[in-house]
Design goal:
This protein is low in regular secondary structure. The protein has 2 helices and 2 strands.
């Protein structure tokens, strides 16, 4: 269980009472979930609830689950063989 490095005021998720947690305390999982500031924890990292540690769920919409689903670059993708862009020349005005 993670320990707090700073005093924290949180609202209990079920009773809606304000609770003061002191540095060095190991809060209950329902209270720990309410503390979203990583600086409040000794490790500097938010603790992961035990029920979410095993099941992370599906990836967010629009993201591929692994890199193998990306299309392979074609033979034209070599940056050294790509043509260099030409600068436009201004026409002379008289």
């Amino acid at each position: 269980m993670a320990r707090l490095s700073a005093a924290v005021h949180v609202q209990h998720p079920t009773t809606r009472e304000w609770v003061v947690l002191e540095p060095g305390e190991e809060p209950a999982p329902e209270l720990a979930a309410e503390i979203t500031n990583p600086g409040a924890w000794e490790s500097g990292v938010l603790p992961v609830p035990e029920d979410q540690a095993e099941d992370e769920g599906p990836p967010p919409f629009g993201f591929a689950p692994d890199e193998s689903s990306e299309p392979e670059p074609g033979p034209d993708a070599d940056p050294e063989s790509a043509p260099t862009p030409q600068r436009r020349r201004k026409t002379a005005t008289t």
